[in-house]
UniProtKB/TrEMBL annotation:
It comes from the Eukaryota. Residues 1-20 are annotated as: Disordered. This is Copper transport protein. GO terms for molecular function: copper ion transmembrane transporter activity. It is a multi-pass membrane protein. Belongs to the copper transporter (Ctr) (TC 1.A.56) family. SLC31A subfamily. It comes from Citrus clementina (Clementine). Pfam families: Ctr. Keywords: Copper, Copper transport, Ion transport, Membrane, Transmembrane, Transmembrane helix, Transport. One of its GO terms (cellular component) is plasma membrane. Signal peptide: none annotated. InterPro entries: Cop_transporter (IPR007274).
Length: 124
């Protein structure tokens, strides 16, 4: 090769200036993102630090996610335009409603990507 040494046997992450302190020792970060479904109320859903560690806030977060999913479905199936409406105004309103529906669907997708079992069940 070109003289570079590659250590394939080590399982430790490479040291960089971002994860070391002034003495060169590794600092531990507690920002863990789950990549499989897990159960528990200590989860971050949609925003950093939300819903926190309180079980009441976790229940509120599940209700908010459920309401977001219901809004997405309602916007997908409702007919808010009258047949005799102005075509330009109807097109603009439909475009606005579609943008809102896609934005809410994106938030629902981000919530399910928290991989929390409670969030998954509230969206099912």
């Amino acid at each position: 090769m070109d003289g570079m040494h590659h250590d394939h046997g080590s399982m430790s992450p490479p040291m960089s200036m971002n994860n070391t302190n002034n003495t060169g020792t590794m600092m531990h970060h507690h920002n863990m993102m789950h990549m499989t479904f897990f159960w528990g109320k200590n989860s971050e859903i949609l925003f950093s630090g939300w819903p926190g560690t309180s079980s009441g806030m976790y229940a509120l977060a599940l209700i908010v996610v459920f309401v977001l999913a219901v809004l997405v479905e309602w916007l997908s199936h409702c007919k808010l335009m009258k047949p005799d409406a102005n075509h330009v105004a109807a097109g603009l309103i439909q475009t606005l409603l579609h943008a809102i529906r896609v934005g809410l669907a994106f938030l629902v997708m981000l919530a399910i990507m928290s991989f929390n079992g409670g969030v998954f069940l509230s969206l099912k």
